[in-house]
Design brief:
By secondary structure, the protein is an alpha/beta fold. The chain has three domains: 2-87, Rossmann fold; 92-245, Alpha-Beta Plaits; 250-364, Homeodomain-like (Arc Repressor Mutant, subunit A, Orthogonal Bundle). The chain has 17 helices and eight strands. It has helices spanning 2-5, 21-31, 49-54, 67-87, 96-107, 113-125, 151-161, 184-188, 191-201, 223-233, 252-266, 274-281, 285-296, 300-318, 323-329, 335-346, 350-363, and strands at residues 9-13, 36-42, 59-63, 134-143, 166-172, 175-183, 209-213, 243-245. The strands form two sheets. It has a five-stranded mixed β-sheet with strand order 5-6-4-7-8, with helices on both faces. Strands 1-2-3 form a three-stranded parallel β-sheet, with helices on both faces. Helix 2 links the parallel strand 1 (9-13) and strand 2 (36-42). Helix 14 crosses helix 16. The chain is globular and about 80 Å long.
């Protein structure tokens, strides 16, 4: 549901069957980094408060709680969420020299190698990546109808990108220019963040936007040319929330095919997850999730469940194995959870399906 609805906020209990609230928070943030989480739990679980803080929850609510108290708490949470986006920019003024240097780098052409070295030294002093392995791209966010972006817009863009990359953004006219730094492999997968920015723009940005990204480069002297290329892509953009990717890397099909192979080979492993597969393939969970849905027509978890349920059904109807054993063979150590999932998928319990098949054979 988080993948489908892209909610801003999740309120969850901590102690639940099959999955804890903290594990749920971790998993939903793999596919929706912007989501804010609050825990609702009993007084006896208050020892979980430290764990909640570690998971960056926005609130910890104690049961029992009345509707009036919950409504009040949700109003406070709403205010906190709004404030978080405003406050991301707080403190950036102390790094004004970095913003000035970035603006000059992106909007002016540096032909002088000495000038580039000076900028590199400044970036290094302010802990912005400048190693030989660093690769850069320029992301240009253009606001419709020539509206000027706000500090909140700037904060939102930085908040999303900084979950995976280092970046610095500067506004100029109706656009925000963002210099993004990462290693070569990470930069190849930058496109998924354009999707997140587009989704976020519907909620948090002050206007519809057009997004474009330059090709990767390694020399900062190429930054201005990269900026011009990214801006030129927007000349042909239609009005509305269109985002464009320059030099999109081929190979998404191979990545998704490999993911399907891993599901086929490892569905019996209870630990198989979007996170574990993305780590194995050296891509972000967000990138893998977005492309699986686009390439395969469904989410990773649904494809995994489909495989497990099909195997379970075949084993139920073609073998005399116990349901507990079938559960384990399909990646479920908890038989009750397996039965819950099976009934949700097929509309009938494993035992009932087996009984029904036996009845058909007897009748024939």
């Amino acid at each position: 549901m988080v993948e489908q609805l892209q909610p801003d906020f999740l309120l969850t209990d901590i102690r639940m069957p099959f999955i804890s609230g903290t594990e749920l928070a971790k998993q939903v943030r793999e596919v929706q980094p912007l989501i804010q989480v609050a825990f609702l739990s009993g007084y006896d679980d208050f020892t979980y408060a430290k764990e909640a803080i570690d998971h960056d929850v926005i609130a910890y609510l104690l049961k029992p709680i009345s509707m009036k108290e919950l409504t009040s708490a949700l109003r406070e949470i709403h205010a906190k969420i709004s404030a978080r986006f405003r406050d991301v920019y707080t403190g950036e003024d102390k790094r004004a020299s970095l913003h000035v240097a970035t603006a000059a780098l992106l909007l002016d052409i540096y032909d002088d190698a000495k000038e580039e070295r000076r900028v590199r030294e400044l970036f290094d002093q302010l802990h912005f990546p400048v190693s030989e392995e660093t690769r850069y791209i320029v992301l240009v966010t253009a606001f419709q109808e020539s509206l000027s972006p706000t500090l909140s817009d700037l904060a939102t863009i930085n908040k999303i990108i900084r979950r995976e990359f280092t970046c610095i953004s500067v506004p100029s006219g109706p656009r925000i220019y963002t210099l993004v730094a990462g290693d070569g492999e990470m930069i190849q997968h930058m496109e998924v963040f354009l999707g997140e920015l587009y989704q976020a723009s519907r909620r948090f940005l002050s206007s519809d936007v057009v997004l474009s990204v330059s090709r990767p480069f390694s020399d900062l002297s190429q930054a201005a040319k990269a900026t011009q290329d990214a801006v030129s892509l927007q000349k042909h953009a239609e009005e509305g929330g269109l985002f464009l990717v320059r030099d999109r890397q081929d190979g998404v099909g191979l990545l998704c095919d490999r993911t399907l192979e891993l599901i086929e080979e490892n569905y019996q492993n209870e630990e198989l997850s979007l996170g574990s597969v993305s780590e194995l393939l050296h891509v972000s969970p967000n990138y893998l999730s977005a492309n699986m849905k686009k390439y395969c027509g469904d989410t990773f978890i649904n494809l995994l469940i489909k495989k497990r349920m099909e195997v379970a059904r075949d084993l139920l109807l073609s073998s005399s194995r116990k349901i507990t054993e079938i559960s384990e063979l399909c990646g479920y150590t908890d038989q009750h959870y397996f039965s819950f999932c099976f009934k949700k998928y097929y509309g009938i319990s494993p035992a009932a399906m087996r009984r029904g098949q036996s009845g058909k054979e007897g009748g024939s």
